[in-house]
Automatic annotation (TrEMBL):
SUPFAM superfamilies: PRTase-like (SSF53271). The lineage of its organism: Bacteria, Bacillati, Actinomycetota, Actinomycetes, Pseudonocardiales. This is uracil phosphoribosyltransferase. It comes from Lentzea guizhouensis. The keyword Transcription does not apply. Belongs to the UPRTase family.
Amino acid sequence: MHLLPQTNQLRAMHTIVRNRDASREEFVFYTERIIRLLVEAGLDLLPFAPRDVTTPVGATYHGLRFAEDLVGVPIVRAGESMEAGLRAVVRGVRIGKILIQRDKVTKLPKLYYSALPEDIASRHVLLLDPMLATGGTALAAIQVLLDRGVVEENIVFVTFITVPEGIEAVCSRYPRVRIVTSAIEERLNENAYMLPGIGDFGDRFFGTDK
């Protein structure tokens, strides 16, 4: 579990996006700033290889090479709000898609669609979804990746906010999956809404909230 440092700047941005009266422009602008921090933190968990370069003054700098074979996989639709943040810092990154929705009869997560690189089993995956609440969707998406041969420890789940219940659900079943988030909420209420919460992230981001 990797929580972003709870700086005053981060708390100020959260104050804006959690405000029910925030405009969509404010919500998008400040969530995108936080998403960029989350993506950078997720990338920092990937493996790096040694690399030496010669500096302009002829000296050798013993540095590192970024991880290769990376793919971003947003969970449609809310996870697509995080895609631009990944593309902004990883040029040419491959993007897969997973669509999971709750079945109206069984109330269980159901896979409706997935489009993933053929060689995803050999790649590191940043799984993107802004909200980890009960954990049902996340568990289903992780299982899709595992079924395609992705190694559990090669999955980094990047989420905007979560709750202890969601963390427990994911970590208890997939302990080698790492989670990166900007906030851990107090709890879920009786309707499985996070408290204090942020509302429906996808609706607020894409402007489809009522």
